Amino acid sequence: MDRPDLELVMAVKQHGSLVLAARAMRIAPSAVTKRLAALEARLGLRLFQRTTRRVSPTAEGETLCERAAHLLRAFDEVEAELRERQAEPAGPIRLAATFGFGRLWVGPALASFQARHPGIQVQLQLTEQLPDLTVEGFDGAIWLWDAPSDRAAEWVARRLASNQRVLVAAPDYLEQHGTPRTLQDLAAHACLVVRENGGGPGQRFDHWRLRRAGEAQVKHVPVNGPLSSNSGELVRDWCLAGHGIMLRSLWDIAPQLASGELVRVLPSYAMPEADVHWLAPYRPQTPRRIRLLVDFLAESFRREPWKRISAPSAPPAPRQKR
Length: 322
Hints:
Blueprint: H1 3-15, H2 18-25, H3 29-43, E1 48-50, E2 55-57, H4 59-86, E3 91-97, H5 99-116, E4 120-126, E5 140-143, E6 155-161, E7 165-169, H6 171-177, E8 191-194, E9 207-212, E10 219-222, E11 228-229, H7 232-240, E12 245-249, H8 250-259, E13 263-264, E14 269-270, E15 276-281, H9 288-301
Parallel strand pairs: 3-4, 3-5, 8-11, 8-12
Antiparallel strand pairs: 1-2, 5-15, 6-15, 7-12, 7-13, 9-10, 9-14
């Protein structure tokens, strides 16, 4: 059995008529009849029931058609991959990313990638909710969390970069209210809470999950304060204005740390498990243009460019007099 045989049975099933199948394949109806009869004789099976009104697959024919669909799709994917290798990659790529990281880091990276490959068209949708990539037709997402548990078996994930969320405050706030020396000291401070989605199941906005560098244990620290918002940018503005202590990703506050507008608080602690990931629906053959993009993003982010500028930390608190 070869590829034309598979195309023949698929055409007959799709159109339910030998005449219509012949018309779709641009061959004579008699040729379809002869080829189908020869295939059935060779297999020793009846693949289709024929009536004056309809041609429908038998159980054996249905099984063959199911396998034929997979095999023909594989043929097409192999041919497309071979064609791509001979030519400059081209075609559309549809992506999703979170607003903040997407605007500050993904957008510039995609512009550089597209400049390298002018035949590729990139469409980036910024959103706070991770879409159903398969249903909504996305090729992938650059996201700050791993694949959700209900999609882990259907999607592929690749870690692009680590993402530290650190404690920061404006120097003016620390000068007025003092610098925390322990996690317990945070209870006495105004903590600015970001109520964003995407933190995973069971997320509590009034608890910060923090881990000391070099330790495995994650501590849940209750926090409170008079100001909170679902906008990370607004909370950052409050922090810059000296209204409290914030837990924020390094990639988002790198310029302010470099300039000294913000300083690290309790610099040995950070929030774990919020790394940057590539998420995509599983597909047997990934187009070359998408493979090139993922490799480009991994190379662009693996050194965490937002950490290249050294950031000052809060000065140590003075020792208490005994």
